[in-house]
Amino acid sequence: MTIAVTGATGQLGRMIIQKLKQKIAPGEIVALARTPSKAAALGVEVREADYEKPETLDRALRGVETLMLVSSSEVGKRASQHANVIAAAKGAGVKRIVYTSLLHADTSPMSLAPEHVQTEAALKTSGIAHTIMRNGWYTENYTVPVPGAVQAGALVGSAGEGRIASATRNDFAEAAVSVLTGDGHDGKVYELAGDEAYTLADLAAEISRQTGKDIPYRNLPQDEYAAVLKGIGVPEGFAGAVAAFDIDASNGALLDDGRQLSALIGRPTTPLSDAVAAALKS
Length: 282
Fold this sequence. Notes:
single chain; alpha/beta; Rossmann fold; 9 strands; UDP-galactose 4-epimerase, domain 1; NmrA-type_oxidoreductase; NAD(P)H-binding protein; NAD(P)-bd_dom; NAD(P)-bd_dom_sf
């Protein structure tokens, strides 16, 4: 069996490959990357695969049985890029695709959802066996800013009392490997989220507990939070999107209590306390 992983130089793709190497022979893994030289250290075969250049995809997918399609990072181009990959996979005779979608993509209010819905539809009409992994939020989305919050003396956001059932990239990577190397997943749609939900006030309390400092959570209006992000160097468009995601979170967009993720990985998802500790050490 040959498994190819797109986005091999990205954080999730790289992690999936590293974990796959613990399950199957490295010779059965192909890393697909726009810039192959950046994936050279992964210890597996690397092939050029540019979503915008179908000819590279045709070559990259030859001899591949299972494709791990990690969603593109280029918001606004995802649907067309993923369609290129799916078409190339069909032409190359790929037998199975596993795709990283968005939690509750079909009902989510998040601006990210429509492109995932379009990709899911393309998979369903492709005739290729597939599994849809609707990934929730990465805990790192909220813990990477933790050191800055400690320095500033407060954690800010716009999520209000919205509960967030996030999980770490490590958790999601383990789930991907479980699906890639296991049986019985064809045709399944998994809603993947952390076991225990928390609010940003809970996150601030955990930061306070671990640092011994009073780090309160300050909820800001969406435009004010976007302005804060822009002020610390986040590009204006992305700052607005992040603030909007928090508003979605306040309305329950990042909440799921089905525990399908922990069922796939065979253990509880990583506790928030562990993620905070890792962020404080970074």
